[in-house]
Design goal:
This protein is α/β, with parallel strands linked by helices. It has eight helices and six strands; from the N terminus they run H-H-H-E-E-E-H-E-H-H-E-H-E-H. A hairpin with a 7-residue loop joins strand 1 and strand 2. Helix 1 crosses helix 3 and helix 4 runs parallel beside helix 5. It is globular. The termini are far apart.
């Protein structure tokens, strides 16, 4: 489709959108615009593509960030890197982790290259742990996983529960998986990890 034709379609689509916004029927729109049925179908497909693009941009931004709170971890998702550190004891883990799962699902569809994943928790409840399992299961669908993905699991020195959880997670996914001990899981360590200083 040439640029002039695409521009013409966009202009006429705007007029049809305007008509729809004012509750006109399809036939009224066709009559007002003076277009035949075949041309209207072109407009309709154009609108569907435009709407789908808007949804994709909303669901899968290049960079997804959730700031930490007293009950939820710091999350940074971007092409090539996934970072999730802090405390995970939200009242409704589904509300917190579902957008993360959606982002990862869309990311996998983009055929990612090298991806570094860094995770670690000061505290994590059972429901959050189940969501971490779900996220790893989704990531396991990446083609050539062992070549593309590497995971580092941070745990506090002496925290055997988090160390054991790391071992369990490592058994669920076939890619390089490092268990990294740190002296203490706190904001200072999180920022150092985020900046690549650990």
């Amino acid at each position: 489709m040439g640029r002039k034709r695409a521009h013409s379609l966009q202009s006429e689509c705007f007029a049809i959108k305007f008509a729809f916004c004012h509750s006109f029927s399809i036939f009224t729109c066709l009559f007002i615009q003076g277009v035949d049925e075949h041309k209207f179908h072109q407009f309709y497909i154009f609108l569907l593509i435009e709407e789908a693009s808007d949804r994709i941009e909303m669901i899968y931004p290049d960079r997804f960030i959730k700031e930490p709170s007293k009950r939820t971890p710091h999350v940074l998702l971007e092409p090539g890197r996934m970072f999730m550190l802090g405390r995970s004891i939200p009242d409704n883990p589904g509300d917190f982790y579902r957008p993360i799962h959606t982002w990862i699902t869309e990311y996998i569809k983009s055929n990612p290259e090298k991806t570094r994943i860094e995770m670690g928790f000061e505290y994590i409840n059972t429901s959050s742990t189940k969501w971490i399992f779900v996220l790893l299961k989704e990531l396991a669908g990446i083609p050539e996983l062992h070549r593309i993905v590497s995971i580092t699991w941070y745990y506090e020195q002496g925290d055997d529960d988090m160390l054991d959880l790391g071992y369990i997670l490592r058994s669920l996914i076939e890619c390089p998986f490092t268990l990294q001990e740190v002296e203490e899981m706190n904001d200072d360590v999180f920022h150092r990890i985020l900046e690549g200083a650990v």
